[in-house]
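As the next step, I needed to go through one protein, both as residues and as discrete backbone shape codes, included below for the reader:
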Amino acid sequence: MSAAAAFRALRALAALLVFTVGGAYAADVDRADTLFVNGHVLTLDARDAVVEAVAVKDGRILATGSTADMRAHAGPGTVVVDLAGSTVLPGFVDGHVHTSYAVRMMERYLDGRFATTPSVAVLLEKIKAHAVTTATGEWLIVAGSSSSQTRFAEKRLPTRAELDAVAPSAPVMFLNGSHESVVNSAGVRSLGLQRGVTSMKGAHIELDAGGEPTGIIQEGLAIFPDRRIPDDDLRRYYARVIPELWNAHGYTSVYTLAPLDQLAVLRELAQVGPTSLRYTIGLHADPGGRFLPPSFDALALPTSVDPVWYRVAGIKVWIDSDVPMRGGAVTQPYAGEAGGSGILNLAQPELDALAIRAQKSGLALLAHATGDRATGMALVAFERAQAGSGARPVPGMQRIEHFGEFMLGPDDLARARQLGVAVNVQPGWIWTLTNSTVENLGAERARGAFQFRAMIDAGLQPGFGTDLTGIVLETLDPFLHVWAAVTRSSDVGPFVPEQAVTVREALRMLTIWAARAQGEDAIKGSIEPGKLADLVVVSADPTRVPPATLREIKVLRTIVGGRTVYLAPDAR
């Protein structure tokens, strides 16, 4: 054999070895742990691709395509799940939620919501019946609907004197949503409210003409009697109760808002390992942020914690209170004789300083703003923080919570888009809070509420959150939000229908836009190779059913990291 022939033979052998080894390696890395086949998969990727099957490896999406193509990724150990034609969506992202308080309210508080309690008279009877069995000194806390004063038959809240009459000994607190409460005299004493004192740890205390507390408290988070949840309860909530409840509704991720004193338990659980729900964490102190630590550096989780399961991402601050109880800071007074312009929990310079601190720390600032004055303040603070740093923040680092839900200033959409501010909304509030919005703002001004079509047309991508606190339980249903955003169905009938969004836009609000609003769209929010294998199987294709029936769609299966974590009883 000539040298040339020998060289050609050696080169062919080398090529064969490379092909063989490389082929074996390729077969190994392309082999799926799980295949989901024969489905109708709405990927919600940039092309809005619809495929039949998804291959999963190591908790991430390996490939998508036809069932035949995905079966090529099967190996001896691959688990194959036949979807039998069911519709698959990206796992839902609850981008703003108070998970621990929601569970607390559901487990422990008396139900005084409008759905079950139509009047102050009925509420007082409920409290009277429970007060006699309440242990001495133990708080009786009643969860009421937001804007109860517009929903109860009497069109008002219970008074301190009425609560005294039915519960003279036990301290009682009635929650008018999560931003306002009424306590009885025993509650006034227990909280330490004093004559002539209008503020306590950021809470706004209402006084009567003689300087005595009326029992009404606004923004009382820092003095809430059940604010400090016992650690053992928190461990149970975060490790089991919250994942089970949210998974059952198709959620695979939550942006949970927690007080600073829960961080130790969250850090402990994060080091133990993942549950079946991904936790992005926003921390808060008092509403105005004055009790936040001087440095945010100590808030980080250990580097050993996998951030796809637990990540401290932001700081929450309440610029104002809430429009439904006339606490949102507005530029023009509220409608009716009561009027008023709402309340502010901090001044512009304080907000500016927080925005700068958060940006320097690498944490997001989540600015709660429900009135147009508060929204304007948030935009100013973010603009100043950007000017000071000379840089535009990465997505999700500057956020306005409840952006434009009730009202917008004339330039808010354009300014938010120009600054790259992320926005978070609750579409289901169209169904639960339109009536109170009309009563509080007046019919004409209320037409500026829930302008989701205008937000999208302006180039914003509103991310979704339930804002669940355990009070309006219906809002945990993701398809309530899709239905409301698409049909504009409200508690006063169809509401400003020209602001309706498409079904695909509503689904994006629950998935990719919610993920983007927290800076996580590179790993979640759509069904694409390389992203986390978080999926939800539902009972119908939302894009193919009559809009009026969207709320009837049910979650059949929830998949987190390729693993089924919830299976509906009728889907077994």
The longest helix spans residues 3-29.
